[in-house]
Amino acid sequence: MTRRYALERSRISRRGLVAGSAVTAAAVGLGGIGRGALAAPRNALPTRQDDPSSILIGTLGEAKSINPFLTDESEGDWRCKMLFDEFVRANPETYAPEPGLASAWTIDGLTVTFTLQPTATFSDGTPVTAEDVAFTIKGHLAKTTGSSRQSKFLAIQGAQEYADGAATDVAGLVAPDPKTLVVTLARPDAPFLYNMRYVFVVPRAALEGKNLTNDPFFQKPVGAGPYVFESWTVGADFVAAANPNYWQEGKPAVTRLTHRTIADAQSLVLALVSGEIDASNYPNPVARQQLEENPDLAILVPPFTSPNGWMFNLANPHLAKPEVRRGIAMALNTEQFAADALLGLGKPGLGPIAPDSWAHDPTLEPIPYDPEMARQAIAGAGAEGAQIRFMVNQGNVLREDWLTYTQQALQEVGIEVVPEVMEYAALVERVTVAKDYDACGVDFAGVTAEPSELYEQFLSTSPGNYMNYKNPELDRLLTQAKETIDPEQAKPVYAQIQRLIMQDTPMHYAWYRPFLHAVDKRFAGYTDSGAYGLFHTLEDWTVTP
Predict the structure, then answer these.
(1) Cα 122 versus chain centre, distance
(2) If DSSP codes are grouped into helix, strand and coil, which group holds residue 106?
């Protein structure tokens, strides 16, 4: 039996293998953050939208939150963009900063002066002001909020003192008039403009003096984005309607969006082919031919993002040893996995930065496949016979196959894999909040659009470092790269960063995940994106009924 057929057969028995560890969305600590009733049965959901100008999007995993201060994953970020809009947008193809709620900006040394869109209002009709923007940034900085994105704004003058509680205001945030925000930085910060895309502006008047993690406001938020919140049924449908007060006149043409969780990549294929849904970023790429046979669907193939693999939690005493982490990596034949499980659609991964990025170093050497050396390293570190939990999100068939393959391979080198397969939002909660995991197959560390995001993921003191990984030399290099404005000068620094991460292996970057994006042909005007997917600019789409 070939490895390919072994993997195909494993798909049949996979759920039996891990059934005892599956977790449903209902088990997630909801915390009152914008979620509706518990999941509805699939047969109770509408199968088509009555309005041809509406869209029903299928997604593989549920969002963690629609609270802009708490969201830290793709599904929640996209919903926040739709509801609140971004202060500065990133071009979906080049990732260069573009106007959003900020219509323009000027840069004078370390001072950036933003002009807000003159017609921008929240969905209730009240104006969006510079004070609202400053309030939102301070919300991320406040220690009591617990935002994983706090470090994105710490270069602002006085931000660190505010975050530490030593100051009652941020000196570098000044609003001289309602439509002007002046931001002064304490030091050079190369990704500053890019990071302003994470400022999903909230109304200060509605939230000042309130708890930004669980205020009832987030159950039905008011934002300045192209859509207005209607409902959210966990594990089923998130629904929003066009914002009648949206600042871009005549938009959005798609008058209603439904974001439906269908937690299985092959089920997404069937839903697309049958017409249950209109579009998705996550259909099983192995089913490309089946999708292309449907004349109503347009199929797009985006470029590779940063690789998938295993992110290790160094709180586990075995994984705290670099010999064990590297031994696990050496035990996994990524060439074979890419050829068999990915069917030639993906490739072995190479380092934490996407191959299309200006900062990617193509001269990196992959970690060699050497099971004998892996066995010796694991035994020498005292980890032979260790039981280690490996976690992936339910319904992602490629990651599930990766887990099955890893379990087989590590058994041969002395590691017992305890598999855990769970719903996406539950996994996010376990990793990013509880940090209750050993190895995770969802790529919380790695960058596609902006290489300085490695700073938030690997810096020893960053709240976005979910690995408990600490390396003073890497901290120094990450800080140097972040403060280097010229990309050509930053390239050699990022080359050192990539080599050090691969050497220490806090995450094993094993394989490039292949994506297919599918959309009904009645929609046009979209820009597909490797980093953000198909729906990032939904407000710009057009519809032919």
Answers:
(1) 26
(2) strand
Answer whether 353's CB lies under 8 Å from 494's CB. yes
pLDDT digits (tens, 9 = 90+) for 62-80: 999 999 999 989 999 999 9
CATH number given to 86-125+146-199: 3.90.76.10
286-292 mean pLDDT: 95
Global pTM?
0.85
Calpha distance 18→423 (Å, rounded): 13
Q: Which has the closest alpha carbon to 284: 71, 517, 530, 79?
A: 517
The yes-or-no verdict on residue 343 having pLDDT over 90 is: no
Determine whether 165 is exposed, middle or buried from the number of CB atoms within 10 Å of its CB (0-12, 13-18, 19+): exposed
pLDDT in tens, 379-436: 999 999 999 999 999 999 999 999 999 999 999 999 999 999 999 989 999 999 999 9
Q: Per-domain residue ranges for the chain?
A: 3-20+304-512, 31-82+225-302+515-543, 86-125+146-199
The secondary structure element, H or E, covering residue 116 is: strand 111-116
Asked if residue 434 lies in contact with residue 426, where contact means CB atoms within 8 angstroms, the answer is no
Is the peptide bond preceding residue 252 cis, with omega within 30 degrees of 0?
yes
User: Quick one: pLDDT at residue 344?
Assistant: 83
Residues 520, 438 contacting (CB under 8 angstroms): no
Confidence band for 16, pLDDT divided at 50, 70 and 90: very low
Mean pLDDT, rounded, for 474-483: 97
C-alpha–C-alpha distance, residues 332 and 323, integer Å: 15
Q: Is the pLDDT of residue 10 over 50?
A: no
Token pair of 133, please?
Answer: 């923007």
Nearest to 351 by CA among 503, 124, 236, 233: 503
Rounded Cα distance between 183 and 207, Å, is 22
Task: Find, among 399, 407, 327, 403, the residue nearest to 367 by Cα.
Answer: 327
Q: What angle do CA 332, 337, 339 make, to 5 degrees?
A: 145
Indicate the DSSP class of residue 44. G
Q: Is 479 exposed, middle or buried (0-12, 13-18, 19+ CB in 10 A)?
A: middle
The domain made up of 3-20+304-512 is a member of CATH 3.40.50.300: no
Structure tokens at 390: 């490996």
Alpha helices by DSSP H, listed for 483-529, are: 487-504
**3-state secondary structure at position 202:** coil
Please determine, for residue 113, whether its predicted confidence score (pLDDT) is greater than 60: yes
Q: Which of 18-22, 55-59, 356-360 has the lowest mean pLDDT?
A: 18-22
**Alpha carbons 69 and 200: distance in angstroms, whole number:** 9
Q: Alpha-carbon distance 343 to 156, whole Å?
A: 47
By C-alpha distance, which of 217, 196, 221, 84 is closest to 140? 196
Bridge-based pairing state of the strands 439-440 and 308-312: antiparallel
CATH number 3.40.190.10 is the correct assignment for the domain at 31-82+225-302+515-543: yes
Strand partners, 105: 114
Closest CA to 34 of 245, 223, 196, 226: 223
